[in-house]
Sequence to fold (224 residues):
Amino acid sequence: MLCPLCQYTILAEDIDEEASTGLCRRCAGTFLLDQLPHQSQPSSILTVDHENRTIRWRWMHFWYALGLPFTLGVMAFTTIWYSGLFFGWIDNPPEEHAWLYLAGLFPLATALYCLYTTLAGFVNSTVIQVDSTTLTKKHQPFAWFYTLIIPRMEISRTVCEVRTRNNDGMMFTYYTLTLILSGGQEVALLSDHFFSHADRPLLQNKNAILSIKRCLDDWLSLHR
Fold:
């Protein structure tokens, strides 16, 4: 019997049959016995290359299609704003309206950020790779936040957790994957944060998270 959170073997003495609950000694998670999954199959979202120890997935999500009209709208507003400045007050001293040029920088920066994010969302992939010395998480072809390079000898175990969040009155359940280092530090490999565009396609897919965990445990020789 395996823990539904971290796939660690559950010992018989940690099962309370009367209460139909179990306790995992690795991740300290508790669960109902009827929550135990059948053997998970590798998620179709992931491309796993065992020979090169590489896991890859695309960012592509409907969220980016929704963001495209917003991006175009902000860019149109910025264009109209600066067109009005250049052609509406051309005969007036520019010093009197300098603040208007500065005020237009905010929608311009917003438009550029939205355009970059939308393009990255459509074409980017995230790659997790394990080689002889490091575990690397990177995003390509567009650079993005939270690129990780961790010496593999510092990784002592991986932990998968189930978390919930209240989103406008609706409970949102998602899964995270954390690396526990030899010094006790925790490094979020897959998590829900503001810039977690790369992780969002996986956060609600338990099979995908567990597939990544099993591959990393195998490649990093973390089996207990």
